[in-house]
């Protein structure tokens, strides 16, 4: 939060209200759209009053904190205070003192500003102390040199327990002068604080303030444990940190606790250990090795390589032999099928666990895999006699895979010159190709039957024409020709200037056009007020036939109504001198296809490609989907590519395809899959029974025990079980047996056990970064600066918005209520308030947010005690909560259409508008708009409303 601080002498002052007004000409302008239309009218601003004032409350919601120089006269200081009642609810405070060890404690701040790293040593503080030698004595001859750059930021520990004030948004921090601050009962000299200086560490965008004295000779008694103990004692402690910037010109911007994203807000970083009860386990044995009674069987148990502990691998050959020679000698061959055999013995040693007094082990298997090989999973390999087996039978079988690419065995996509996306010669018009813009009948008007240049210039009625009279305004300059027009000579005076110039069309040019008294645009001779007598307020045909006294007569030669001459303000039809809109003019045809500038289906074109060049060298855009010309043609029965037939000649009669023999085919059988890609190729799992898969052994009672074949093994292809356990002088011999109905080429399993589980109490590390406890903010923060208290004469005729000094502006559109009353239920099609930035007086760093709000209840703006923060307001912006105004903004346009619509239909009552900003961007930026005093009449505030009713 960012508190605004004022001198003690000015605290009794209320908000300051200043009134100034802007006077503009008010004149409605109407356009008659005809019997089927509405009356479209415009209304320009009348009197505007702008009231600039200072709110009375402190600035308390800023996302930024400031330490350092604000301007020539003022500096800002940052106060950071841990909320003791909040911190006392933390888990740290509820942990018994003998169960916690505090290691480090510091405040962590994030900055907008870029800071130098300090200090530049590996150990931030223990390697040097300013001015002290290696024995800690100040000024010793062996003083350790300080880093190259000392920080200009300083942090001080403040004891606020005797300050006697409540920390909240209404708390007043006051300055006696620019360097003396009053905090309740505490008066603090900010230049030389009578407080303990703390260690401080900066990164490029971070500040760490450690709760440890800066000086090695400090006797303040601060250390991480004592600080935490003080913070936990909510009823006895109230401490804060004061952050200052000693560089005379320096200013550091810091993210405050009100910042939107919690990753950047101030945090209390604590590193500590606590005694905690944890669940622990102990392994009951160590694995020593494995052996197998089977001849030439390779065995391996984890402890080597990367396998899990206790994982066993068994193969008929070593892994190297299998990989290098592809040998597959079975572990359990055909001679051992359906026999109970010992496959391996595993040697274990009891672990020396004093806490384990159970004298038992429960063994079980995991990840059991018994596998054999299958090099023809689909069973379709030719065996020399069975003709239903088609893989590798050296004969093409209907259904086998082949490449239908033609006898050249090259598919179109691989043939040189393949270009299916070519645009030249593709039979369709492509952008860039030349075409005759004749219309879809492919005939120019002169070729159409019945053509006569005078009486029948467009017999087919297909000429494109959106301006038959050729009087539409185009910003083409005096010659009336724009770029792209036939015979266009180039730009001339007035072309593209956004304004009407002589020689340009008169329809829709936004101005009344007059050639002579008898040749002009149609207008209503209402007089400059835009109203006929019957529409003027107070009209009575007998007693008040001319309320505005604007009717022309010989006696009233200044009258403008009925004078036969158009004056500004009188409605007119901007349809050009012919008085016809384009769509009323003879020959209007917006759907015509002849000369519409676009290709229409049916028009003749040159199929030369998008480059509009035919047969160029090299010709790289020719449409060519079949470079070799061998695509199958069903009508002519020519071509072999894509004919769905294998075109192959077995020249050497070896039953296999060879290069040069036509289309390639693959002897993989009718499933079109080679053995190597068939599912389960190479290894099939053998279903294996493990019985109950748990062996409970009390080795103290039964040092030797045997187990039988699992009872349900007849339902599986194989069985695996622990068949014998023996304990001898701390060593265990574990025997594993198997029985299989299938040849087993490989075995893998993991021998595991239930470890001994118990609870232990150990120190556990914790490193939280606290910003809140139980959803309550932990750190209060404030920028302390002596702000500006403006006198009335300083703000006279100023339209200013500023956050740090709480400046807001109230805008009063004094004639708007009259407009609303006169136009109930009108349809508002446009309402824009345009404000022009006083760029010389404004001072914006990067951006400033502009909020526009309406008062929801009547306000007496003339009340000298008026402050807007006591009144209810609601936003009037519809697309976002605010307008983002950049530093180089020239003007601001505020869309009030939705608001005006609500006013005229009675949803809301108009009570005035308020303009303000917030503390998201630079708090000291100020935005100043021009008022009625602007020398340039065009840069005064304007409100324009376009409506119909």
Compact summary:
The protein has 7 helices and 43 strands.
Shape: flat
Cα distance, first to last residue? 50 Å
CATH architecture label name of the domain at 48-55 and 790-948: Sandwich
| Amount of beta strand | 25-35%
The assigned structural class equals mainly beta
Give a short account of the largest sheet: 12 strands, antiparallel
Q: Which fold name corresponds to the CATH topology of the domain at 48-55 and 790-948? A: Jelly Rolls
Total of helices: 7
Query: What's the level 1 CATH class of the domain at 48-55 and 790-948?
Result: Mainly Beta
Fraction of residues in helix: under 10%
What would you report as the Rg, rounded to the nearest angstrom? 47 Å
Integer average pLDDT: 80
Please count the beta strands (DSSP E, at least 2 residues each).
43
Spans of 5+ residues with little confidence (pLDDT < 50)?
A: 1-40, 120-148
Please tell me about this protein's structure.
The protein is mainly β. Strands 5, 6, 7, 8, 12, 13, 14, 15, 16, 29, 30 and 33 form a twelve-stranded antiparallel sheet that branches. The chain contains seven helices and 43 strands. β2 (29-32) and β3 form a beta hairpin. The two termini are 50 Å apart. Among the domains are: 48-55 and 790-948, Jelly Rolls (Sandwich), CATH 2.60.120; 75-82 and 106-218 and 235-278, no CATH class; 284-373 and 683-754, no CATH class; 523-571, no CATH class. 5% of the residues lie in helices and 28% in strands.
């Amino acid at each position: 939060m960012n508190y605004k601080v004022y001198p003690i002498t000015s605290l009794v002052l209320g908000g300051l209200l200043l009134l100034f007004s802007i006077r503009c000409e008010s004149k409605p302008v109407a356009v008659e759209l005809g019997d089927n239309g509405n009356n479209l009218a415009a209304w320009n601003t009348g009197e505007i009053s702008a009231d600039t004032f200072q709110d009375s409350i402190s600035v308390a919601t800023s996302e930024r904190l400031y330490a350092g120089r604000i301007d020539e006269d003022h500096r800002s200081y940052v106060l950071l205070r841990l909320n003791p009642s909040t911190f006392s609810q933390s888990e740290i405070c509820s942990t018994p003192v003998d169960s916690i060890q505090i290691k480090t404690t510091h405040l962590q701040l994030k900055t907008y500003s870029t800071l130098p790293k300090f200090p530049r040593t590996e150990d931030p503080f223990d390697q040097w102390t300013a001015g002290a030698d290696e024995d800690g004595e100040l000024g010793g001859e062996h003083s350790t040199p300080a880093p190259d750059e000392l920080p200009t930021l300083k942090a001080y520990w403040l004891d606020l327990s005797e300050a006697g004030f409540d920390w909240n948004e209404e708390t007043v921090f006051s300055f006696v002068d620019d360097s003396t601050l009053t905090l309740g009962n505490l008066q603090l000299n900010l230049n030389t604080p009578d407080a303990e200086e703390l260690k401080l560490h900066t990164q490029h965008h971070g500040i760490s303030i450690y709760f440890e004295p800066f000086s090695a000779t400090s006797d303040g008694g601060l250390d991480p444990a004592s600080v935490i103990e003080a913070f936990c004692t909510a009823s006895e402690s109230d401490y804060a940190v004061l952050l200052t910037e000693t560089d005379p010109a320096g200013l550091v911007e810091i993210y405050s606790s009100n910042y939107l994203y919690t990753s950047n807000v101030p945090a209390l970083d604590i590193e500590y250990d606590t005694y905690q009860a944890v669940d622990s386990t102990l392994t009951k044995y160590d694995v020593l090795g494995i052996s197998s009674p089977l001849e030439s069987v390779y065995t391996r148990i984890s402890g080597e390589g990367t396998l899990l502990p206790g994982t066993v691998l068994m193969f008929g050959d070593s892994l190297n032999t299998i990989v290098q020679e592809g040998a597959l000698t079975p572990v359990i061959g055909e001679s051992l099928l359906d026999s109970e055999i010992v496959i391996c013995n595993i040697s274990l040693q009891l672990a020396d666990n004093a806490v384990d007094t159970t004298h038992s082990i429960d063994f079980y298997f995991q990840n059991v895999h018994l596998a054999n090989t299958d090099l023809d999973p689909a069973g379709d390999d030719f065996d020399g006699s069975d003709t239903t087996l088609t893989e590798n039978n050296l004969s093409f079988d209907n259904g086998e895979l082949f490449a239908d690419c033609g006898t050249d065995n090259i598919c179109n996509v691989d043939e040189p010159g393949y270009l299916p996306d070519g645009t030249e010669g593709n039979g369709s018009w492509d952008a860039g190709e030349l075409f005759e813009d004749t219309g879809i009948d492919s005939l120019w008007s002169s070729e159409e039957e019945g053509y006569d240049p005078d009486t029948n210039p467009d017999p087919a009625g297909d000429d494109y024409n959106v301006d038959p009279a050729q009087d539409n305004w185009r910003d083409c300059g005096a010659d009336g020709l724009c770029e792209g027009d036939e015979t266009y000579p180039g730009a001339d005076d007035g072309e593209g200037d956004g304004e009407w110039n002589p020689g340009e069309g008169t329809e829709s040019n936004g101005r009344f056009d007059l050639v002579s008294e008898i040749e002009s645009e149609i207008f209503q001779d209402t007089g400059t007020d835009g109203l006929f007598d019957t529409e003027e307020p107070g009209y009575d045909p007998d007693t008040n036939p001319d309320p505005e006294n604007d009717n022309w007569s010989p006696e009233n030669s200044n009258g403008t109504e009925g004078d036969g001459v158009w004056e500004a303000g009188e409605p007119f039809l901007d349809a050009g001198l012919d008085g016809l809109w384009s769509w009323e003019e003879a020959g209007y045809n917006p759907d015509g296809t002849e000369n519409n500038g676009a290709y229409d289906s049916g028009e003749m074109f040159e199929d030369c490609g998008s480059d509009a060049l035919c047969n160029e060298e090299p010709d790289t855009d020719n449409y060519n989907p079949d470079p070799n010309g061998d695509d199958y043609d069903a009508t002519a029965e020519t071509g072999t590519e894509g004919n769905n037939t294998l075109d192959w000649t077995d020249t050497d009669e070896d039953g296999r395809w060879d290069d040069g023999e036509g289309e390639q085919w693959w002897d993989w059988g009718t499933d079109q899959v080679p053995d190597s890609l068939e599912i389960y190729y190479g290894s099939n799992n053998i279903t294996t029974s493990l019985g109950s898969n748990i062996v409970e052994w009390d080795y103290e009672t039964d040092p030797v025990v045997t187990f039988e074949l699992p009872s349900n093994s007849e339902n599986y292809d194989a069985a695996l079980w622990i068949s014998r356990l023996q304990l001898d002088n701390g060593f265990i011999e574990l025997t594993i047996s198997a029985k299989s109905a299938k040849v087993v080429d490989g075995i893998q399993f993991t021998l595991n056990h239930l470890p001994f589980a118990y609870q232990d109490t150990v120190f556990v590390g914790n490193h939280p970064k606290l910003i809140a406890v139980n959803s309550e903010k932990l750190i209060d923060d404030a920028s302390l600066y002596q702000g500006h208290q403006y006198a009335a004469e300083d703000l006279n005729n100023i339209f200013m918005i500023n956050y740090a000094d709480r400046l807001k502006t109230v805008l009063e559109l004094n004639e708007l209520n009259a407009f609303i009353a006169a136009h109930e239920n009108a349809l508002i099609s446009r309402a824009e308030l345009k404000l022009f930035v006083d760029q010389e007086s404004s001072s914006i760093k990067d951006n400033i947010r502009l909020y526009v709000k309406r008062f929801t209840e009547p306000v007496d703006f003339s009340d000298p005690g008026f402050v807007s923060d006591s009144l209810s307001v609601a936003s009037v912006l519809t697309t976002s909560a605010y307008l983002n105004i950049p530093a180089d903004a020239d003007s601001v346009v505020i869309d009030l259409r939705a608001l005006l619509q609500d006013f005229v239909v009675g949803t809301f009552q108009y009570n005035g508008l308020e303009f303000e900003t917030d503390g998201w961007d630079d708090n000291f930026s100020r935005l100043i708009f021009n008022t009625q005093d602007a020398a340039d009449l065009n840069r005064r505030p304007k409100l324009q409303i376009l409506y119909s009713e």
